[in-house]
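Lecture notes, part 5. Sequence design as translation. It can be helpful to think of inverse folding as translation between two languages: the language of shapes and the language of residues. The source text, in structure tokens, appears below.
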């Protein structure tokens, strides 16, 4: 029964995230926001709402492993699976701004999580938990990152092709956009609570740690909105929207989701290992290497296959 309820919870989360994203994008289009920035901010935050609902509710219930494992697993899934699948469909081209600003910001966010959780690895008397102060620092960094991205983008509006073409396209009524946002948030909260309760029950019945369940099943489930929206963007020849979605989601997962969760209640690093956390850091670094050294400003289909293969090996090792 728990498996069916978990699947139902994940389904509600995915539907809620899609409704929320549609409403958010409709609102953003009214301000003529660039395509990449919509992916980096609005779509990324919208598709990260499942992680936010699951992790914050887990923190409230004292399930730190579920909160941290969900974010770490989602970031690994985003980098290796989503970008891997998208690159297999069509090569992903990186702009100069992606290489100089966006990917380094993603690496910095991953390193911040790694540093905050070092704790006992560095000194036996240091805590490996993410404190409230560190959580607030993450939220401040996220707000600063959003402001910086919008500020820089506002000075570079010289390429009309980088903007969403809204002229000649019927806009969604304001009331309907707001209704979508509210309904999406409600679905995420309800589905997130259902997901946390049943995932924990499954972990206990199987004798598997909550961290493993969080990194694999829950993380994969809450990342379905990112997967669906990114693949759809690539198919519609909007790769910058897909790339912005993944990079933005990874930064939002760490700085916004874990920041909010730790602010609600400090998160203790238990079942989630430093290897898992630093593997997510390596994923961001590999993305930069792919953009700069291997694919020459793009991720090729071969690299996409390689990224997906690395994820399969990682999961097989984790489950073993």
């Amino acid at each position: 029964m728990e498996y069916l309820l978990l699947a139902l919870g994940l389904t509600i989360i995915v539907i809620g995230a899609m409704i929320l994203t549609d409403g958010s994008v409709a609102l953003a289009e009214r301000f003529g926001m660039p395509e990449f920035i919509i992916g980096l901010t609005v779509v990324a935050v919208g598709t990260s709402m499942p992680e936010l609902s699951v992790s914050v509710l887990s923190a409230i219930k004292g399930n730190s492993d579920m909160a941290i494992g969900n974010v770490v697993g989602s970031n690994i899934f985003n980098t290796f699976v989503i970008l891997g699948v998208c690159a297999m469909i069509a090569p992903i081209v990186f702009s100069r701004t992606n290489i100089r600003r966006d990917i380094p910001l993603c690496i910095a966010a991953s390193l911040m999580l790694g540093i905050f959780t070092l704790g006992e690895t560095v000194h036996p008397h240091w805590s490996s938990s993410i404190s409230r102060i560190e959580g607030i620092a993450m939220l401040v960094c996220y707000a600063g990152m959003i402001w910086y991205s919008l500020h820089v983008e506002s000075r570079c509006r010289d390429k009309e092709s980088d903007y969403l073409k809204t002229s000649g396209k019927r806009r969604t009524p304001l009331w309907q956009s707001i209704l979508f946002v509210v309904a999406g948030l409600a679905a995420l909260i309800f589905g997130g609570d259902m997901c946390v309760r049943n995932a924990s029950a499954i972990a206990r019945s199987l004798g598997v740690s909550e961290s493993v369940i969080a990194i694999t099943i829950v993380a994969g489930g809450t990342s379905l909105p990112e997967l669906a929206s990114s693949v759809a963007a690539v198919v519609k020849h909007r790769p910058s929207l897909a790339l912005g979605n993944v990079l933005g989601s990874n930064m939002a997962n760490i700085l916004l989701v874990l920041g909010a969760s730790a602010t609600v209640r400090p998160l203790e690093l238990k079942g989630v290992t430093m290897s898992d956390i630093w593997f997510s850091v390596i994923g961001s670094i590999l993305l930069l290497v792919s953009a700069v050294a291997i694919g020459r400003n793009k991720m090729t289909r071969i690299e996409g296959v390689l990224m997906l293969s690395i994820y399969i090996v990682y999961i097989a090792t984790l489950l073993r």
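The translated text above is only one of many valid answers, since several sequences can fold into similar shapes. Residues 174-206 form the longest helix (33 residues).
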